[in-house]
């Protein structure tokens, strides 16, 4: 397994650690969870850069990297609903889009095709990750600029989620032409 794929697997392994931290009975749980989430997010940036720079792009990475992102973001957002850090309706939009795109990728894979992440999907993921980081900082620090920035980024992420979902389905509409 090459280094980018190891970073992807590491990100997946950090998901349960993040969730565990969200439920710790200590006052610093949000800052600890934010640090874990930020480190996991950095592995997302690193694995792609390393894979492209060293020509280590694999089908495993094309499939598992977006899946790792989805697991991380969905785990974070669903954990944050319970403590009122993010509205449930936004999480529903994000989860629905992620499931729909994952199903589309599975259909493509059954036909021997790999659908890599597009630029709007990458922007959506980055925005979601920054929203989560700022919301967790805001939860730790109390009302203020971090919470406001996190809230604004959450709404932007919801819009980008809808747009990138539309873009994926439109670009790959031929997958469904025989149905």
Description of the molecule:
With about 180 residues, this protein is mostly helical. It folds into two domains: about 1-85, CDP-alcohol phosphotransferase transmembrane (TM) domain (Four Helix Bundle (Hemerythrin (Met), subunit A), Up-down Bundle); about 85-179. Helix content is about 80%, strand content about 0%. The protein contains six helices and no strands. About 35% of the residues are buried. This protein catalyzes the committed step to the synthesis of the acidic phospholipids. Pathway: Phospholipid metabolism; phosphatidylglycerol biosynthesis; phosphatidylglycerol from CDP-diacylglycerol: step 1/2; Lipid metabolism. Its EC number is 2.7.8.5.
What is the overall shape?
globular
Number of domains: 2
Write the H/E string, N to C: HHHHHH
Report the mean per-residue pLDDT as an integer: 92
- Work out the strand percent: under 5%
How many DSSP helices?
6
**Amount of helix:** over 70%
**Low-confidence sequence ranges:** none
Q: Could you say which structural class the secondary elements and strand pairing correspond to?
A: mainly alpha
